[in-house]
Amino acid sequence: MFINDPLFGILAYVCALVVNRVLAEKALKRLTPEEKVKLLDAFSGHRVYSAVAMLIVILLFFISSKASPSSYAMLMWIFFSLLILMSVGGTVFSYLKLKGSSTPQHYITNFLIRCVVYYSGLGLLLYTIVTRFFPR
Question: How far is residue 16's CA from residue 4's CA, in Å, rounded to a whole number?
Fold first, then answer.
């Protein structure tokens, strides 16, 4: 079936990422140079910490999967769960940071639309993986 083909999920996810980037660029163009600098400064530490946290989770997954190959399926579920929690946590953090600063409302609205697009693509990707590789 087409809907549970992981290639379809990957395509949908990549399309969501492209749409997300296009929307982000349109929103950035509407900001003044001062607002852009303020936005970049506000999230500089977050970008570094989230990349380091992602690297740590990936390294822990590889180390634990090599140490206990029989637990690979369970580790995979834990890994995906952690990545999703980190993504949702980053989204909530970003939203609160945008709301707490003097970011224009049109940019916050655009951010929320991008979140819906991103999580729709991610959800479809995860659905295709789960229905293909973990059938009932």
Answer: 17
